[in-house]
Design brief:
single chain, alpha/beta, five-stranded mixed sheet, four-stranded mixed sheet, 12 strands, globular
């Protein structure tokens, strides 16, 4: 029966890729999905998953923030779906664990909007200080303190909006020179820089030469910002992720893999 499933698996739609084994666990765990209608034991884990039946020829597996979603042909018996799940168990479990760890990183990155709290700026923490006697916002580089002209009783929303406005101004001021520098090095012309507030993307490039960069990159170290800028500008020469594209990136960032690896460990700061 497994032999008959191979054509289905070969056509499976996977949202993430990899073949590394799942790290060993000392005790059974339940990997949940709030939309799940079914559960299955995979190794030492109990996996809840959402099953969607559709007019399709293959089984599709998607591991996202909610958990595991399986799409299967309407005619396929449930027993065959479960065999396919066991066949992809290592991949499924590893991706579910990765999603859980990512959720933990997002929670750890959550900012508390209060006097004395800290947030990352260009890769290092800065402290927020409410100073009612002050006007506007001033950054003390030496002390790594952001002095904010708001009353001590200011609401979280007031503080968040004021600090985010400052961060966005700093993001544009920081990103534009980087874009000009890497654009010149790559021989491309950026026509427009726009700041994005996307929750899942760090940047994008359009064939008209416009670039979008997530303003929250200002939280990260300069080397990571350089990588995202170079990555998007390289798309103005190669609108793909082919070997030729990565050669373009490498031409201006010979060790870009280091920054790319660090970026994969980062989470968009939760605000």
């Amino acid at each position: 029966m497994l032999k008959n499933l191979l054509p289905l698996l070969q056509g499976a739609q996977l949202s993430l890729f990899g073949q590394e084994p799942v790290p060993a666990r000392s005790e059974a765990e339940v990997l949940q999905n709030p939309r799940a209608q079914r559960e299955l034991s995979l190794g030492e884990h109990r996996v809840a998953y959402e099953l969607k039946r559709a007019r399709r020829r293959s089984i599709g597996f998607v591991v996202g923030a909610q958990g595991l979603r399986v799409s299967a042909p309407r005619w396929l018996p449930q027993a065959d779906i479960e065999r396919a799940l066991h066949h992809k168990a290592d991949w499924i479990l590893r991706k579910l664990v990765e999603q859980r760890e990512r959720a933990r990183r997002v929670e750890a990155a959550r900012i508390e909007w209060r006097d004395g709290a800290s947030l990352p700026y260009l890769g290092s923490p800065i402290t927020l200080r409410l100073e009612p006697q002050r006007s506007g916002v001033q950054f003390d580089e030496a002390e790594r303190v952001l002095r904010i002209g708001l009353p001590l009783a200011a609401s979280e929303e007031q503080l968040r909006d004021t600090v985010q406005a400052w961060l966005k101004r700093r993001a544009r001021a920081d990103f534009e020179p980087r874009c000009q520098r890497f654009g010149a090095a790559l021989g491309v012309q950026m026509t427009q820089l726009r700041l994005s507030s996307a929750q899942t993307r760090w940047g994008s490039a359009s064939v008209d030469g416009s670039i979008r960069l997530n303003w929250r990159l200002i939280h990260f170290a300069p080397a990571i910002i350089d990588y995202v800028v170079a990555h998007e500008l390289a798309h103005l020469r190669e609108m793909n992720h082919s070997p030729a594209f990565w050669a373009v990136v490498r031409s201006v960032l010979p060790d870009f893999e280091t920054a790319r690896g660090r970026l994969r460990e980062e989470s968009i700061v939760s605000e």
